[in-house]
Amino acid sequence: MKKIRKFTLLVTILSLITVAFGCSKKNPPIDNGNGGNPVTPPVNPGKTDVSMWLTKADASTLLSQQNVSLLFSSATNTNTTINVDTTQTYQTIDGFGFCLSGGSASLINSLEDSKKTALLNELFATDATSIGISYIRITIGASDMSANTFSYDDVAGDVNLTNFSLDKEQTDLIPILKKIIAINPNIKILACPWSAPAWMKDNNSFTQGSLKYENYGYYTNYFVKYIQGMKAAGITIDAITPQNEPLNAYNTPAMLMVSADEDKFVKENLGPAFKTAGITTKIIVYDHNADHPEYATDILADKAASVFVDGSAFHLYGGNINALTPVHTAYPDKNIYFTEQATFQGGNFGGDLAWHVSNLIIGATRNWSRNVLEWVLATDPNNGPHTNGGCSTCLGAVTISSSVTRNVAYYIIAHASKFVRPGAVRIASDQQNTLLNVAFKNIDGSKVLIVLNTSTGAQTFNIKFNSKIVTTTLDGGAVATYKW
Prior knowledge:
It is globular and about 75 Å long. 27% of the residues lie in helices and 24% in strands. The strands form four sheets. Strands 2-1-22-19-18-17-3-20-21 form a nine-stranded mixed sheet, covered by helices on one side. An eight-stranded parallel sheet has the order 10-9-8-7-6-5-4-12. Helix 2 crosses helix 4. The longest helix has 19 residues, at 259-277. It has two domains: 2-29 and 94-422, Glycosidases (TIM Barrel); 51-90 and 428-483, Immunoglobulin-like, CATH 2.60.40. By secondary structure, it is an alpha/beta fold.
């Protein structure tokens, strides 16, 4: 463990240098496109075997079902062919969605009742006019997309957690979660902290600093109280990660937790405490960028910790999405999750649509992830609320003011969440150079193929299934979801 700790500390120093002078979220920026439209009822294309839903790079078409007849036939041609094979199966899918920050909850809750109900149904229901979000991530205490920093016990020295309370979430987050659960009782919720209570840390601050070793037990009790308190409020936490972005100490809030420390925390405190309390909430480690997968494998290699760990979670502000597969290969009995990627104010709709679909919707799932989560669900027109020092350019999937505007992240996730339902399995499909794709089979037997045309021009290609083909055309930069 000493060698692991020294290596991890070196990695941490290098990581902190890279983030010390700005936000750690650095993928290509986007803009609002044309503001977006809610999902419209599907068209009736007449006789068809395959339905096609399209978003174009110029935002002129947004998650719109196409009035085309796609019929499987025994015809042959020389087009590029994507063969879909249900006999080869991979991981089960838990869902697709967003992070419901405290700020997101307050913005949604600020809407008048009819608009609030309509938006929540559009986001979380599964009817024709909804996008079926099936997985969300929430924060334990404040994140950088909260109006202020806080924890659930800010009374210094309260080692017995006498003052622990979820009252700060009773105004917005808990009421919104209850409405979401009423729409989708099976939604999966992952929770994680941006920081321990400041008084538990070695610098007594919500930013930078680390959890004191002598406070590991108290912080463990904080997690137990949180999960039990949310359960009492009718909210089941499916999984937690011990720390968001543990190698980034410069967000607000933030806390440094190197892999040796997270390993110690899980195996000596959190895991045993959950077991004693009868808590079945999954423990997922890391929750940071794909450029340091050894953080996850360091912990998974420790059998004393690994016994309590369900898997590892990743972001992609650094590294390559293909780094997830070696983690799966080394520890195939542990799950992979993709838990955050932001879109930003400014830039190009089509550029971010392509980057996120290729790297997350297609890339993460092809690299064994059971879920894909974009970052913040909702922001205001000024990209808030956020803390002083939090992300000032992060753009929500929706922008909420007196009305609701749908941004690019909404369509990125919707191309999967609306069609690939929890319990689906990833199945084999031929990856083509400029027709990136991923395929799934739902529990009801329906098949879903998501395709991104990375070339600048339109491409006509075949989808082959059970020795028959349909022929379809996709504009350059466009994304289509095909379902049959």
